[in-house]
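$ ./design --mode recover --in tokens.txt
reading tokens...
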């Protein structure tokens, strides 16, 4: 945790408002605390708690954060189902904790004690930090009949403030009370304006939010035979919206995860935004990229992309090595979807500078492989890492593409030459035939022996005798066959060894072998982050889970490695295997929090994580449905490859630049129908059905009702200046 024990509660970044709030209801000498709900219901835009206090007394609590407001609304519905009218005292209490976000001290911010003041004429509490212009207000439209305040526990700077209201509820009726919480990190006037607006139109604000979420659902709407996966995909679109964080003084972008990582990250965004673009959330894609680019420029000024920045604008880590090449991957993919020349011109210089910095400053031996930390944050793993090498190779390939789009053929050729050389070197120098896998890293014997000692301690602590035996054998081989040159080592079986397949740069034979090796490091919920941590569930397809009571990333299975594995399988024509990984992750959907998927599978870490949408949208939208746009040329290539178990699949309202497409797939016996429709007839639609059903030959027999005579095998079908492409295919 970045601020230990404080990342929960009610936040208005870059400050915290409350540790929480509570309510109780009483009548006569009977008092009931609303602290244990019978039912929790999660909606995309709100959530609901139901309490059964007595046979005759039930309460519902609904809460939501209106769009664009520094506050939230909490509505209580009290039902009296008894035979008599009852007068209740309803009390609402807030526990303030006005404090700065993480790294506030870097801005010279000193947290003060909170002071509460009740404004009787308006019926609200105002709580202010004594040293800063930070405010939190709470109140309702009903008249207040009771107030109270008290200091928090010793050592805490906040206060408790409560409001009491009289509610006379006739028999068999319900009564509502709506409370608002509003904050500001600039002025009491701003907080009051928010509070009054929230209380003036709670239903209107709720309807506005519901309407916006309906549009989120409508974009890239998936329809498939698997209702669990379909529902999971729909909710991941909502989850993605939950993560948007805006601080006007700094910028607007997606956070990495809630509750501990609500601020902005380089690599998390570089994965996630590819998924965001595929689900039609393009506005936040462009805003996040602008934020990362501007902060990176101010912080580094050399194209290096930052890793982590708090919502107060303080950059904690100027960037891990993989984040700079991954920025090139992100920009290239988004450009394919938006076709925006101005977008390309704005970010191309960052890519040029970044790749120059990468190779000039981090490639110590000038062999093309940068040195430094990649995705694996294990002490000592900072030499030539496989993920950094794979992403760097792809970055040069994408830079070649973008340079060509910019009209710079010479630069494009130079980048392409580097990319081709790196691809060859990765397949030669990182490959371990002995392990059937790409190596974790290339390093010296001294480095590897030191890392083996650390890994042995880890394996022993986790009681992994197979890993200890393998590590001991590796150490013996190194000592028996010393080398003065750096060489590849497989020690941890980290998930990043699969990045050459994720990037599609692995030789096909090696790729399939490596993908099969990776199956050893899988449990019913996905891929182990560090392979030597695998447990007795490794390799199984189903089973239950009982985690430790103390959270740790050691032994973790995570959605990103699992998504990377699905993408990798698809890259080598194995959609059934890719679907298997998606199904593993889907088992974790709603496992703990209804409507959400945790960062660490099935229920550890962040309750919602940005890169989850990368792990689903890329395999489904870009690979199963094969949507590969080139918006700058007004072309969309379709290279679908469908899981064999899907008899039908449909995607609706996929946004590509100023175009929207639907694609419908149906399989009946030996016949397949494909229907593609677009709103902008200026786009050329191109279908390559070669890998539609891997392992089977599929031939197009008619287009838009016209029979086609075409050779068996590869067949490219085009639609120019039209809106509909209706195809009948036959499985031979």
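writing sequence...
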């Amino acid at each position: 945790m970045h601020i230990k024990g404080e990342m929960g509660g009610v936040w208005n970044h870059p400050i915290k408002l409350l540790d929480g709030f509570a309510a109780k209801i009483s009548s006569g000498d009977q008092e009931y605390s609303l602290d244990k709900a019978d039912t929790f219901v999660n909606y995309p835009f709100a959530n609901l708690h139901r309490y059964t206090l007595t046979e005759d007394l039930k309460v519902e609590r609904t809460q939501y954060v209106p769009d664009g407001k520094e506050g939230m609304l909490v509505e209580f519905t009290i039902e009296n189902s008894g035979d008599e009218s009852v007068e209740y005292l309803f009390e609402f209490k807030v526990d303030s904790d006005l404090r700065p976000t993480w790294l506030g001290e870097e801005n010279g911010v000193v947290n003060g004690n909170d002071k509460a003041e009740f404004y009787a004429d308006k019926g609200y509490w105002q709580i202010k930090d004594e040293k800063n212009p930070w405010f939190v207000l709470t109140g309702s439209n009903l008249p207040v009949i009771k107030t109270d305040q008290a200091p928090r526990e010793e050592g805490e700077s906040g206060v408790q403030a409560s409001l009491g209201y009289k509610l006379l509820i006739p028999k068999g009726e319900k009564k509502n009370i709506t409370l608002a919480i509003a904050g500001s990190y600039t002025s009491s006037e701003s907080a009051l304006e928010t509070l009054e607006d929230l209380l003036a139109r709670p239903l209107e604000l709720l309807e506005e939010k519901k309407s916006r979420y309906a549009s989120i659902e409508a974009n890239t709407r998936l329809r498939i035979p698997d209702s669990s996966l379909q529902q999971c995909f729909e909710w991941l679109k909502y989850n993605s919206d939950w993560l948007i964080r805006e601080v006007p003084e700094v910028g607007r972008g997606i956070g990495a995860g809630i509750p501990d990582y609500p601020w902005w990250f380089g690599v998390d965004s570089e994965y996630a935004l590819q998924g965001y673009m595929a689900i039609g959330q393009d506005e936040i894609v462009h805003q996040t990229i602008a934020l990362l680019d501007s902060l990176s420029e101010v912080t580094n000024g050399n194209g290096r992309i930052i890793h982590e920045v708090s919502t107060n604008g303080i950059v904690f880590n100027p960037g891990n090595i993989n984040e700079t090449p991954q920025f090139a991957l992100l920009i290239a993919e988004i450009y394919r979807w938006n076709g925006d020349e101005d977008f390309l011109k704005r970010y191309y210089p960052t890519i040029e500078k970044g790749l120059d910095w990468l190779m000039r400053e981090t490639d110590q031996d000038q062999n093309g492989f940068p040195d430094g930390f990649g995705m694996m944050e294990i002490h000592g793993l900072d030499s030539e890492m496989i993920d950094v090498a794979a992403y760097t190779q792809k970055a040069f390939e994408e830079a070649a593409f973008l340079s060509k789009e910019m009209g710079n053929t010479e630069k494009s050729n130079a980048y392409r030459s580097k990319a081709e050389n790196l691809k060859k070197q990765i397949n030669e120098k990182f490959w371990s035939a002995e392990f059937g896998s790409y190596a974790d890293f290339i390093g010296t014997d001294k480095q590897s022996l030191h890392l083996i000692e650390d890994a042995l301690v880890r394996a022993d602590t986790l009681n992994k005798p197979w890993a200890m035996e393998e590590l001991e054998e590796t150490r013996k081989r190194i000592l028996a066959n010393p080398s003065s040159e750096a060489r590849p080592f497989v020690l941890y079986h980290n998930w990043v060894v699969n990045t050459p397949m994720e990037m599609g740069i692995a030789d096909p034979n090696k790729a399939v072998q490596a993908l099969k090796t990776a199956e050893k490091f899988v449990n019913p919920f996905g891929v182990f982050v560090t392979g030597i941590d695998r447990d007795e569930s490794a390799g199984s397809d189903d089973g239950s889970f009982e985690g430790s009571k103390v959270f740790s990333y050691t032994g973790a299975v995570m959605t990103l490695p699992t998504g990377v594995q699905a993408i990798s399988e698809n890259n080598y024509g194995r959609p059934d295997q890719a679907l298997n990984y998606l199904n593993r992750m889907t088992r974790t959907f709603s496992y703990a929090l209804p409507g959400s998927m945790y960062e660490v599978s099935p229920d550890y870490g962040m309750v919602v994580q940005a890169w989850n949408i990368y792990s689903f949208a890329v395999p489904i939208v870009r690979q199963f449905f094969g949507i590969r746009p080139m918006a700058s040329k007004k072309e969309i290539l379709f290279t679908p490859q469908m899981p064999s178990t899907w008899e039908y699949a449909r995607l609706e309202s996929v946004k590509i630049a100023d175009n929207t497409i639907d694609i419908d797939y149906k399989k009946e016996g030996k016949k397949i129908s494909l229907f593609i429709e677009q709103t902008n007839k200026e786009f050329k639609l191109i279908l390559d059905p070669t890998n539609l059903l891997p392992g089977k030959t599929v031939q197009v027999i008619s287009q838009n009702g016209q029979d086609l005579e075409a050779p068996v095998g590869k067949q490219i079908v085009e639609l120019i200046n039209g809106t509909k492409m209706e195809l009948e295919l036959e499985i031979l």
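exit 0
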